[in-house]
Design a protein that fits this description.
Elements: E1 6-10, H1 14-27, E2 32-36, H2 39-46, E3 64-67, H3 76-85, E4 94-98, H4 103-112, E5 116-119, H5 124-141
Parallel strand pairs: 1-2, 1-3, 3-4, 4-5
Helix pairs in contact: 1-5
């Protein structure tokens, strides 16, 4: 089983990125991050098109992508569709975190290729619980080729 050590976060809200990084660092002994405020930048990085995020580039593709749906010109749904069409990237697990939690949004996220979806928390303690649930799930069930 591959360890959860390389995370990509795609979210246009800097405070949300900060909360997620803080709680992932609490839950994981070693982890590194790449963060992007736009889906276009994240896809460019995954395709090695020299787009830099807000942190040093990961040495390899991320173990998991944490994705907000409500982004700029390219939204999370479009990011998921593009990622799943790419032979070399489609296996990367994507956890969607969004304020949109209607049945329609949830169905659309899974249809586009999300592996899981969480409602974006409004309180810090809820962020900690959500990140804990993601890490616990990964440790118990995720299987990937090394």
């Amino acid at each position: 089983m591959r360890q959860l050590t390389r995370l990509m976060i795609v979210d246009d809200e800097l405070h949300d990125i900060g909360f997620m990084m803080q709680f992932f660092e609490e839950a994981l002994s070693e982890c590194s991050f790449e963060t992007f405020a736009s889906a276009e930048q994240a896809l460019a990085r995954l395709n090695f098109e020299n787009e830099g995020g807000d942190n040093p580039a990961l040495a390899e593709d991320p173990d998991i992508i944490i994705l907000d749906l409500e982004l700029g010109a390219m939204n999370g749904f479009d990011f998921l569709k593009a990622l799943r069409k790419d032979e070399t990237l489609r296996q990367i697990p994507v956890v969607v975190i969004s304020g949109a939690d209607t049945k329609q949004a949830i169905d659309k996220a899974y249809e586009a290729g999300a592996n899981a979806m969480f409602r974006k928390p409004s309180a810090l303690q809820d962020y900690r619980a959500m990140i804990g649930a993601i890490v616990d799930y990964w440790k118990k069930t995720a299987r990937h080729a090394a």
